[in-house]
Amino acid sequence: MAICSCLLPKEYTKSYDYTLSIYDNPSSLADIIGRMNTDAANNEDTKSLSQREKEVVVGIVKGLSNKEIAAEMNVSVNTVMTHRRNITAKLQIHSAAGLTIYAIVSKLVRLDEISTHLPV
Questions:
Q1: How many Å apart are CA 20 and CA 110, to the nearest integer?
Q2: What whole-number distance in Å separates Cα of residue 37 and Cα of residue 82?
Q3: Which of 37, 51, 75, 96 could form a disulfide with 79 if both were Cys (CB 3.0 to 4.6 A apart)?
Q4: In 3D, which of 37, 48, 49, 38 has the Cα closest to residue 104?
């Protein structure tokens, strides 16, 4: 998947299964995320996250710091950092934006839940 913050020629993004752009309209984004969701449900290669790792992903998506996630989960900051390393290793996702898309596609969060946390 490619996430674009500028207009790029098609030849730069054709090697990706999906491309999201900040210039896409909401219905187009919903369509792409829906297709990703269908494909993810059919993909058995994805390693599943533990319940605690899913909680960390939700915290990251909500924009919480490691310290805030730790307090919410009643664990140490080191435990949250370990969960984050495990999440990265399992999913090969290295950014909060990527985790946000993963969380939406995996139905860990709803789009309307995170839209309230976005800056205007």
A1: 18
A2: 27
A3: 75
A4: 37
